[in-house]
């Protein structure tokens, strides 16, 4: 039986990064992952690379190009005649991007001498201080085990995914023809991103959301700005609904639902994407064999260091508490590998950025204004619109704003919220600033390149002290 210092179960962002970092630290490391592509070959990267972050961004980019060519090029003096959509090529490009990432991770394993086993990883037992782990058709043993098995899409009760008419994030990436009418249940990140893709390509999109507020986790002012942009684009969003029976037929799906006023309605669509959250994936882990503790949600119970109830067994990413974000999983994976090595791994949950890659993009870090109010924290706020930013005007995309929230007494930055062009990139400055406990004055005093979108960040920081220069 092959023996390793560290065995990682799962090859997604948390798992493969943990394996690489462990190997860098000198540990004899193995990673087990069962994902395979359409040809049956190993496909490292987990949900994120195969049916999540990477392919969705590829489709978002392609669909944005298509919309720009059809609706926005003319204002730049670019005339496009006979515009057409080759959906097969669009999907093929997405698949190529995914494979490039799969292959990249495999290369990194070879570079860092991480042993890879293709197949399902599960606990088989424990003896003499080692854990026996089934790795596909083999059984291997390791002193330390890191579980990074990710999460699965949550299905709507009574309407399981068939990936033909009722779609998870997986099926939403592989629709073979642009639907005339597309329904979405849930207005979370996945739902809005996939809805944006297919709306740009020509679908009429209706979103049914159970909550009475739009994007409840987002700062309220930012969410309202985003909602205005989505309404203008033609995305139909219904809030406070109750979804009833969902039935499929030969040509589509019918959803019985009740609106916020209590009126019974029916939504008939060609395809239905269900995006109501994700559940921790412990399927087939055989945690009972070693007594690994799970909570009532099926997540692995860990402490703030990602330790489980078993000695030398750790868990990271979507399968444990905390936000289900790829970059959070990566940070935990690195931290655990370093803790195994006796170092002080670092993960600051207060500075984990969130991003929704719609158009406009939405990104934030830290606390929202409503959270500060609820906690009774005295704060100052400053905003700056992209409408007054020279680079945004040149881009032709002036939707949205940057918003700073700072402590009223100390001026320490408590939260930064952005809706607008390239918000996913702009938020990094705020993350760095908050990690170093900077004040809004610190950002206001830093020279930002002109013209650049980042000037809106500086101006919003200036706005905290009511001294913007360009608005």
TrEMBL record:
Sites where the protein binds NAD(+): 186-193, 209, 277
Subcellular location per the Swiss-Prot or TrEMBL entry: Cytoplasm
Annotated catalysed reactions: N(6)-[(R)-dihydrolipoyl]-L-lysyl-[protein] + NAD(+) = N(6)-[(R)-lipoyl]-L-lysyl-[protein] + NADH + H(+)
Keywords in alphabetical order: Cytoplasm, FAD, Flavoprotein, NAD, Nucleotide-binding, Oxidoreductase, Redox-active center
GO cellular component: cytoplasm
Domain FAD/NAD(P)-binding: 4-333
Pfam entry (one): Pyr_redox_dim
Entry's cofactor comment: Binds 1 FAD per subunit.
Binding site for FAD: 57, 121, 149-151, 318, 324-327
Enzyme class: oxidoreductase
UniProt domain Pyridine nucleotide-disulphide oxidoreductase dimerisation: residue ranges: 352-461
GO molecular function, one term: flavin adenine dinucleotide binding
Assigned EC number: 1.8.1.4
Cofactor list: FAD
Active site annotation, chain numbering: 450 (proton acceptor)
UniProt record, GO biological process: 2-oxoglutarate metabolic process
NCBIfam families: lipoamide_DH
Additional detail: The active site is a redox-active disulfide bond.
Family designation: Belongs to the class-I pyridine nucleotide-disulfide oxidoreductase family.
Name of the featured protein: Dihydrolipoyl dehydrogenase
Organism the protein comes from: Ramlibacter lithotrophicus
Taxonomic path: Bacteria, Pseudomonadati, Pseudomonadota, Betaproteobacteria, Burkholderiales
